[in-house]
User: What shape does this take?
Amino acid sequence: MERQSSLHACVMRCAVLTVLAVASFAAMHAQSAGPDRLTLGRGSLNFLVISDWGREGITDTARKAPGQMKVARQLGVTAARVNASFVVTCGDNFHGRGVSSAADTLWQVNYEGPYSNRALRIPWYIALGNHDYYGSVEAELQYARRSGRWFQPARYFAFTRESPDSSAILFLVLDSTPFVEEYRREADDRHHVGGQDTAAQIRWLEGTLSRSRARWKLAFFHHPVYSSGSSHGSTVELQRVFRPLFEQYHVDACFSGHDHDLQHSHPEGSPVEYFGVGGGSETRPVGRAEFTRFSASSLGFGVVSVTRRSLRVTFVNEKGEHIYSHDIRK
Assistant: This one.
């Protein structure tokens, strides 16, 4: 009897191990057969988002801008891998004093050289940051008229794209710098925000949102509405102005930079997801707040993949590692 019990136990253990082995093989097979987790498959529109990226990339790279060059190389690798349709920037395209003209040598040093990968010869839709305002914003607008990929028709603008499964996506590229009261109080107006009509931008934004019938609505600008970054943090002026409009008109996600890190924030009671993609060339310490879903003091950028039913945001660091991913579903 004892021998029979022992034999029965052995048979049961073998059966369990066999089931586990089959389940494990099935799971591995399903994972390997599934789509690249960066994207949502063949029916998705894929694009990249980067901020705070411009740091004189090809001049003495080992000393001045190693971070920018590392991210630039990986940006090209990832663009090819996901077949990116375009890039959206969230500002600080030129750190320091910005650019002085459309013929400034920084265009080659800071942009054309570091981002020369063939996969990055796609449209770049450009938002402005506070460092761009240190220099000549008009120079950036003028460069758009001579460049084959630098798309910046105005200080703020909108465009619409369609995913392969015929879902319309509204892209709102906004200009947040003039809304920051600290810049307007500067005696010497070093940010050159004087004369910028924020009320006109808000009227334009509300009109654009109210007319849009796009399934997805995405906003891009420099200063974070919510952030746990150590250098700047949340921008209360934008919480007052943009959050109510985003919620009223069902904006799905907002992307920004300014703090040099990667973040995902979701304040309580808000249907909007906020993503920080400020790791384009440099990192700074970052903490956590009650609204923080993810934060990392890391170089990197965002990969966004959109279909009719889902939007995926993945943070990719300079080594090509996928350090965070979040899906928004409709």
